[in-house]
Amino acid sequence: xxxxxxxxxxxxxxxxxxxxxxxxxxxxxxxxxxxxxxxxxxxxxxxxxxxxxxxxxxxxxxxxxxxxxxxxxxxxxxxxxxxxxxxxxxxxxxxxxxxxxxxxxxxxxxxxxxxxxxxxxxxxxxxxxxxxxxxxxxxxxxxxxxxxxxxxxxxxxxxxxxxxxxxxxxxxxxxxxxxxxxxxxxxxxxxxxxxxxxxxxxxxxxxxxxxxxxxxxxxxxxxxxxxxxxxxxxxxxxxxxxxxxxxxxxxxxxxxxxxxxxxxxxxxxxxxxxxxxxxxxxxxxxxxxxxxxxxxxxxxxxxxxxxxxxxxxxxxxxxxxxxxxxxxxxxxxxxxxxxxxxxxxxxxxxxxxxxxxxxxxxxxxxxxxxxxxxxxxxxxxxxxxxxxxxxxxxxxxxxxxxxxxxxxxxxxxxxxxxxxxxxxxxxxxxxxxxxxxxxxxxxxxxxxxxxxxxxxxxxxxx
Length: 462
Prior knowledge:
Elements: E1 7-9, E2 17-19, E3 22-28, H1 31-47, E4 51-56, H2 62-72, H3 76-81, E5 85-89, H4 90-93, H5 102-118, E6 124-129, H6 138-152, E7 157-164, H7 170-178, E8 182-187, E9 190-195, H8 197-256, H9 262-293, E10 299-301, H10 303-313, H11 315-318, E11 323-327, E12 333-335, H12 337-354, E13 361-370, E14 373-380, H13 412-422, E15 426-432, E16 436-444, H14 455-461
Parallel strand pairs: 3-7, 3-8, 4-5, 4-6, 6-7, 11-13
Antiparallel strand pairs: 1-2, 8-9, 10-12, 13-14, 14-16, 15-16
């Protein structure tokens, strides 16, 4: 019926496979109609490691349902003893205590689902018959059916509701069809599938959108490959003449410097400095390209040790300066150590650069756990920035303060953003002109993010 990443077999030939979150119904006339659909439905669920809950009513009660299952599955009682299937009367589920409570029933399904997953089942397969439903309860039950759609789509559930044709008039049939993705009904001894037209149109629109997204993703991948090739080509083709320019400029200064006046020597020095800046720009472009291409590994990272190591590597930037550097108790991170090291390198070098005018630079690195994320912050007392720039500073070739004499390529923070987002994290910044800046990055906790730490892998690496 539907496309999905995790399709489940229904056991019903006319339906085939459906994704989790499917909510459909059957209109029946006889007891045998129920047996024809529900027995293969639950048999398939049991055989595919799903927790099954069958809520019965006339004309197919608990004992009759059990007998029908036994006839189809000789080992049915083994499944029942293990708790893989529960067959309940509607009085034990829908009308527990003598009345119908929509929220209690909905919460009950979620509890069954969670309990099933905790026991190792793939999901919950359920069905409930509605013959017990009185006319006075129809409106409440219709609201319940509508609410199921919002619940089922969030969980690994399949829901099949059964309605007696004899108990449903035209208006009731319309209500039922509106609240289910499709319905089964028997015509001339053949089961027919009736799809909810609104849902069908939505499904077709989603399918078209998915096809378009796949096409655009392929185009984007092709463009990224071309850009990567271009970046490496630029790296090779530009570095060769740049080295020549730098080398010949150095020879001119060394061999002919005494024949040049002060302005000539100054201009050659400017040429060499420009070459050096161009070399750094090429290196940064390549780093930015690699940060979007490499798939991050996910290992446990000692962030305190990494931060101090990066700070030591930046010794040339702080030589002859007074720098107060503080590192708090940083929680371990989960990610690609080489990439996270590059993040910290870019942030700390920025902090050192933009505190260059201070008599005493103060840089502080802190961290903590909040709302399922591990958050790290690099704070400095440098020149700061206008918060109106906050949404722009992580863009490529964006610079915090143009024209203030601070060297940079404008790619460092863009690389930080790309690396953190590749880890399913996020970045943001706070600052005030003349008072400093703070750059934050957050990574998912190992138990909540896709990068859950593989403990055996970590131990093997150690």
